[in-house]
Amino acid sequence: MSNVKLSYKHLDTTAVVDIIQTRILSINERETVNIAVPEAYRAKLKPVPQRLMSIEDVFELVAEDRKAVDNLIRQRLRSDVVLVNQLGNYIINSGGKRLRPLLMLLSARVVGYEGFHHVHLAAVVEFIHTATLLHDDVVDASELRRGHETANAIWGNEASVLVGDFLYSRAFQMMVEVNNMRVMEILANATNIIAEGEVMQLMNCHEPDTTEEQYLEVIRCKTAKLFAAASQLGPVLCHSSEETVDAMARFGMHLGTAFQLVDDVLDYSASAEQIGKNIGDDLAEGKPTLPLIFTMRHGSPQQVRLVRKAIEQGGREHIDAVIEAIQSTGAIDYTADAAHREVDLAIACLSQLPDSPYKTALKTLAEFSVNRNQ
Predict the structure, then answer these.
(1) Phi-psi region of 155 (alpha: psi -120 to 50; beta: other; left: phi over 0)
(2) What pTM does this model have?
(3) What distance in Å separates the CA atoms of residue 328 and residue 299, rounded to the nearest whole number?
(4) Contact indicator for 21, 364 with CB cutoff of 8 Å
């Protein structure tokens, strides 16, 4: 049985009730739970269904939109250059749940958008994300992603970088077609901030004195910013209020931060088969992620020396000892708890939206981000 304490002093009552009900449903899916609900909120809890949607239910809810996005991606990926077609199709079709395009679709439907531009922008978001993956794998010298060889391992670094550039430029071509300057502004700013985040991460590599605040700044720029952009584009297309646009941007930022925190947990707690890449990749690249930062704050002097040396030198020579140190200090639980707090804040951002299947789907997507094992 799990005992969950909830304290959200800075949130309004509606937001707290939303978090409590979503947490109850989410945990009931996995185990018996005893949640200490403050008396002030008990009377405001509404009758709820027996469970949240499953992630499969979410996919089904926007199945037609997702099919349209897939068709558009295939159509706009075409090029007269054979290598662009080969490499682009390889990376686009190499797996993944396409959560960022899904977020774009749901953010449009939840505010009542009924046009087609959300499909267009969902494809744009996926192209931007795929371009960042191609460039990341070159920078990190990665050889495995989603259980497959990386594009750079097959075609080389030069081809991967250039096809990544093609995807970026194709995304900007498609942005212009929407003929909305606010959309252009959001996506152009997001792309620039993502690039800054990648540079910040590079600067932090092999730097064991990286702080938790510096780490969080990196993941908010590198990962969460595209989640935020995808989340706010739907309300922008629908000419929703600035309050709604801002709330959805914050939802995406919190969701994206939680998503990356869980990725960092899985790098030290899952199998290579589950996460589709080699265990300890972050350590091998000298990246000081939150589990390592926490271990250096709370570990024994011997554990601190071990982790510092591992970050400074990179590689996997001491991976077993590092994982043992991470587990013994509670770093995995600390990082997972941080991810759950981000998800609760994301769900609170939805409190002003009217109840609908799309709002429920967004909550489910938030819970999925922290309860996944891959």
Answers:
(1) alpha
(2) 0.85
(3) 8
(4) no
- Closest CA relative to residue 171, chosen from 226, 219, 122: 122
- pLDDT at 91 exceeding the cut of 50: yes
Query: How far lies 287's CA from each of 141, 264, 330, in Å?
Result: 13, 10, 19
| Rounded distance between C-alpha atoms, residue 181 and residue 234, angstroms | 14
* pLDDT reported for residue 167: 94
Contacts of range 296-300, beta carbons closer than 8 Å, 24 or more positions apart: 296/208, 298/329, 298/330, 298/331, 299/325, 299/328, 299/329
Report which of 274, 281, 264, 278 is spatially closest to residue 334, judged by C-alpha positions.
Answer: 264
Residue 317 tokens read as 């020579």
Q: Is the pLDDT of residue 204 over 80?
A: yes
User: Is 183 buried (19+), middle (13-18) or exposed (0-12) by CB count in 10 A?
Assistant: buried
Phi-psi region of 141 (alpha: psi -120 to 50; beta: other; left: phi over 0): left
Q: Rounded to 5 degrees, what angle do the CA atoms 152, 156, 157 make?
A: 75
Q: What is the mean pLDDT of residues 216-242?
A: 97
Question: Which CATH superfamily includes the segment(s) 52-371?
Answer: Farnesyl Diphosphate Synthase (1.10.600.10)
Give φ, ψ of 316 to 5 degrees.
-115, 15
Reading the block at residue 256, the tokens are: 């994206």
Question: Residue 171: its pLDDT value, please?
Answer: 96
| Residues carrying CATH 1.10.600.10, the chain | 52-371
